[in-house]
Amino acid sequence: MIDIKETYLGFLERDNQLTKPVAAIQALLALLCELQPNTSAEMIDILQDAANTLKSSVSNSISLSAGCDLFLRFLTKNINASKDWDACRRNLVQNGNLFASRALDARSNIARIGLPFVRDHDTILVHGRSRAVIQLLQDAAMSNSVRFRVYITEARVCNEGVYMANILKKSGIPVCVVPDCSVGYVIDHTDKVFIGAEGVAESGGVINQIGSYQVAMLAKAANKPVYVFAESHKFVRMFPVSPSDLPGNEKLEFTSPVHPESIEMNLEAWPQVDFTPHQYITALVTDLGVLTPSGVSEELIKMWFD
Amino acid sequence: MTQQLSGKELKELKKKQKQAQRQARKNQAGNQAGNQAGNQNSNQNSNQNSNQNSNQNSNQNSNSNSNANSNSNSASSAGNGSSAPTSRDYAETRAQMTQVNLFAGIEPPKAIMSKLQVHSSILHLALQMQSCRIIGSASRCKAMMLAFQQVVRDYDTPSNGSFSRSFASHLSQQIEVLKSGRGLSVSMGNAIRWLKQETSGLSMDISDESAKEYLVETISDFIRDRLDVADRIIVDTASNHLQEGDVVLIYGSSKVVLNTLIHAYTVQKKKFRVVIADSPPLFEGKKAARKLMNVGIPVTYILISALPYVIKGITTFMVGAHAMVSNGNLYSRVGTSMVAVMAAARSIPVLVLCETIKFSDRVQLDAFSVNEFIPQSTKGNKDENLIFFDLTDQKFISKVITEVGALPASSVPVILREYKQFL
Question: Pfam families recorded for this chain (chain A) (predicted)?
Answer without folding.
Answer: IF-2B
